């Protein structure tokens, strides 16, 4: 079971069994590429008194929320982590978790409601041999403090040839307790950013774990494995050569 499936099973408070499972597979929060440094963090039992995203280090479902972009190879039981080693021909899944940390009792007044909430993902088209690529997610909200938070996962090319990363069209899906569950994110996810939401993808998210969710998308890894040979024919394809003599 994915750690993030626990969100749907326990939207407000995780059960004792769920907590035990989550504790066993939480990703360590060391050497993480997240930002900005939060001026203040909160706890699961004592959430924020204003709109802020992914600033709870002790979330029993996901661990440190600042580490909200994670990656794994698709199609196996491996849990999401902070890095993968890329292999040509394989498909990988990227997960981006989002949570407005405002206390639920601030929603009625509107103080805890996040506005203009978007997720934007950034991924390079290629990775040079022996290099690392960063897959980065940005959560933005016009009335959040800070207005933007980000985190990265690492994809390593340990081979001797350049690799190309190809987004799988239509693979970006939302998991949520709300009506948006299962919705496909538009391609603006990778350009200007795409709206998040609960009742609809309208950029509005109440505070509380009930309204948290995550987006998962896939990309494949290609490696060019061909040579180009140019030939020309002057007799309608009967014979071919590397140069033409007329």
Keywords, please?
246 residues; 6-stranded mixed sheet; disordered N terminus; single chain; mainly beta
Could you characterize the architecture of this molecule?
The protein is mainly beta and 246 residues long. The chain contains 2 helices and 12 strands. It has helices at 5-9, 16-25; strands spanning 33-35, 69-73, 83-85, 91-98, 118-122, 126-127, 131-140, 148-157, 163-167, 173-176, 194-195, 213-222. It is elongated and about 80 Å long. 39% of the residues are buried.
Gist?
The chain has helices spanning 5-9, 16-25, and strands at residues 33-35, 69-73, 83-85, 91-98, 118-122, 126-127, 131-140, 148-157, 163-167, 173-176, 194-195, 213-222. With 246 residues, it is mainly beta.
**Fraction of residues in helix:** under 10%
Q: Class by helix and strand content?
A: mainly beta
Low-confidence stretches: 1-31
Distance between the amino and carboxyl termini: 69 Å
Mean pLDDT equals 86
Largest sheet data:
6 strands, mixed
Number of helices: 2
Radius of gyration: 22 Å
Overall 3D form: elongated
Strand content: 25-35%
List the helices and strands in order: HHEEEEEEEEEEEE
Number of strands: 12
